[in-house]
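R.M. (postdoc): so does anyone remember the format we settled on? I'll just put the C-alpha cells first.
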C-alpha cells in the first residue's frame, strides 16, 4: 500500500508545472517520481495537442493517460492509443472567415488532431509555433476540408480583449465553446468540451482505482477542471477566474508548485 493510493493528480503544463522557460524543475521532477512510486496516479491536462506532447511526456512520465487540447481528447502514451476525441463542426469556418475579413490583426490557426494550420500569421502565432516546436504550415479557410479539432485566435492582450468583447454577443457563442486559454490566445471548441469534463471521463475510465481527484492550474481554461476535481488548487500566478474556482492556492510555477503540493499531501496538510 502506498500513501498516495487512489489519488489522481491532474496538472496543467504551461504556467503550472512548467516554469516560464518551459522547463520542469528538478524538485518538481523528484516530487512527481515520489508521488508515483508511492501509488499516486499522475496525469497531464493541457491545452496543447497530443502530437506536440511527446517531449514533455518523456520528461513528466505520467503513469495514466493524459488530457489534451483543452478537453478535446485523452491519449494513452504508454500504448500509443487515442482513447477519446472530440471535433468542432466544420460550420465554424463561416465564423472564422468573418474574423479573417473583419479583424486583420488577429492571428488564426485551424487545428486538426494531426496538425496545426495557420490561416493568418502574426507575432503571437509565431510565438505559439515556437513554444510548441511546430513548423509553419499555411492553409486557406475557403475549401478547408479536414476534420477540425479547434480554432485558435491570437493577438496581443489589449487587442485580444477588444476582440473578445466584440464577438461576445455573436450567435456562434451559443453554438460553440469560446475559451480564453492564455493572455494572448482565445479558442473555439465543441460545445461542452473542457478540461473538467475530460477529468471526469478519465477518472471514469480508471474506475475504482480512483478515490480522490486533485487538479492544479493557472488559467481560465483550467476553471472547469479546478471545479470538477475534489480538490482544485490554483498556483500563485493564476488568473482571477482560476483562483476563484479553486479550493486552495499554492506557490507560483516558478517556485516548484507541484512539489509544494505533493509535500503538503505527504504531510497530510491537504484534506481529501
Amino acid at each position: 500500500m502506498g500513501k498516495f493510493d487512489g489519488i489522481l493528480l491532474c496538472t496543467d503544463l504551461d504556467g503550472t508545472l512548467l516554469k516560464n522557460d518551459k522547463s520542469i524543475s528538478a524538485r518538481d521532477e523528484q516530487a512527481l517520481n515520489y508521488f508515483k512510486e508511492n501509488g499516486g496516479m499522475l496525469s497531464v491536462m493541457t491545452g496543447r495537442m497530443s502530437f506536440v506532447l511527446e517531449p514533455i511526456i518523456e520528461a513528466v512520465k505520467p503513469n495514466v493517460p493524459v488530457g489534451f487540447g483543452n478537453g478535446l481528447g485523452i491519449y494513452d502514451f504508454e500504448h500509443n492509443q487515442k482513447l477519446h476525441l472530440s471535433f468542432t463542426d466544420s460550420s465554424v469556418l463561416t465564423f472564422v472567415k468573418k474574423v479573417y475579413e473583419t479583424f486583420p490583426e488577429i492571428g488564426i490557426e485551424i487545428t486538426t488532431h494531426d496538425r496545426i494550420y495557420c490561416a493568418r500569421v502574426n507575432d503571437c502565432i509565431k510565438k505559439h509555433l515556437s513554444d510548441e516546436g511546430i513548423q509553419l504550415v499555411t492553409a486557406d479557410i475557403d475549401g478547408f476540408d479536414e476534420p477540425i479539432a479547434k480554432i485558435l485566435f491570437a493577438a496581443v492582450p489589449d487587442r485580444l480583449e477588444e476582440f473578445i468583447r466584440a464577438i461576445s454577443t455573436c450567435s456562434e457563442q451559443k453554438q460553440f465553446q469560446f475559451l480564453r486559454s492564455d493572455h494572448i490566445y482565445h479558442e473555439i471548441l465543441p460545445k461542452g468540451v473542457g478540461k473538467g469534463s475530460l477529468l471526469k471521463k478519465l477518472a471514469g475510465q480508471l474506475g475504482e482505482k480512483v478515490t480522490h481527484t486533485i487538479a492544479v492550474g493557472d488559467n481560465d481554461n483550467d476553471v472547469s477542471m479546478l471545479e470538477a476535481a475534489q480538490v482544485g488548487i490554483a498556483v500563485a500566478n493564476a488568473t482571477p477566474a482560476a483562483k476563484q474556482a479553486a479550493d486552495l492556492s499554492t506557490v507560483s510555477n516558478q517556485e516548484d508548485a507541484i512539489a509544494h503540493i505533493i509535500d503538503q499531501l505527504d504531510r497530510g496538510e491537504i484534506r481529501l
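R.M.: ...and that's the designed sequence above, right after the C-alpha cells. Also worth knowing: The first strand starts at residue 7 and ends at 11. The CA atoms of residues 8 and 41 lie 5 Å apart.
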